[in-house]
Amino acid sequence: MHAEWPVYENPWVDVLMADVELGDGTRFDHHIVRTRNAASCVVTRVRDGREEVLLLWRHRFAIDKWVWEIPSGLIEEGEDPAETARREVEEETGWRVAEVTPLLAFHPVGGMLRAEYRLFRARDAEYVGEPTEQNEAEKVAWVPLSEVPGLIDSGQIATAASLVGLLRVLAEQK
Amino acid sequence: MHAEWPVYENPWVDVLMADVELGDGTRFDHHIVRTRNAASCVVTRVRDGREEVLLLWRHRFAIDKWVWEIPSGLIEEGEDPAETARREVEEETGWRVAEVTPLLAFHPVGGMLRAEYRLFRARDAEYVGEPTEQNEAEKVAWVPLSEVPGLIDSGQIATAASLVGLLRVLAEQK
Question: What is the pTM of this model?
């Protein structure tokens, strides 16, 4: 990449143009979108011998869909991503987790979007009251982990951070 | 959502502003980024009793990382997404698949990005020659599926379409 320059700037979304040269000498301009980094958390608990996961049922207006998602939010300036994950769990669900551990990090669109999404894992949670971010979700529920594959197949879990986090946890149970 | 209007437009990336009202009456403007839809394909085969998956090792300049990815590309105007998946496998790897079946569809960033990524699955492939998109990858390889969890943990598989597709295939083997 020889250079990049902004073509649209804003506190939430920047669009950059990059001057790129490939291995064979081909040179072209390519768009890059830069957005803020985010952190999400897969919170599980065991109740009556079955594993459950903490999900929010919410409407995403950008895609005009209702989906189940794990708690998630933007990382504030200078904030430790693990703290973002803990904070968002509590603000969005009213449940507090003692500790989160890193699960993995990913890029939502490797070819065009400059943003990193950090995924964390927590086990058990304590109910501390109504969510303070009341607008985040229509409902908050502990969903049996065994029902997650069906929710994925029916398109009710359909956004990347939730899919990657939940599938990673399901795959590790193999 | 009351209305939306473009603030930056281009054949590859549009930035829209949306006038949104929440359930409690809170009303605000929110950015939406719209990009083209894409299709990707998890291609597996069995060799010497072990399952392998067809991956590309490529540099993603938007995130400045080398990553393993499944074949993937933008859906052309009017193109059947399954055909996109078949076409990209062949153009990017030089391997041809007879048939692809839908795996799942997802949205890379539910809260802000209006784009749908379609994932497909194919079994077996026939080598038909050098990839026609020579610039797509540094190398093309059949990687044992058993090595995929380690590549995820080490950050060598780190982009959403590849993670979701590969984790979905790993999870279904449970």
Answer: 0.95
